[in-house]
Amino acid sequence: MRKRLTPQAKAKIAIEALKEQMTWAQICSKYKVHQPKINQLKKAAEEHILRGFSDKPDKTIAAVEEKNEELLKMLGEA
Description:
The protein has 4 helices and no strands. The protein has 78 residues and is mainly α. The longest helix has 19 residues. 6% of the residues are buried.
């Protein structure tokens, strides 16, 4: 049976991998996951971190902001 990881557990594993203070074997043993999963979580964390520091606004954020402006205009007209 597959072990399902919570988002908190995934974050902890990714942080451990990013710190590089423990060996892969130690992380595998501590969290009872396989090395490929640790690599996957580390890469995902790096991508999300880089996206967070990006100068370009995310399309979904821009769409939400546009919708909010639309709604505010509608409220102002009423």
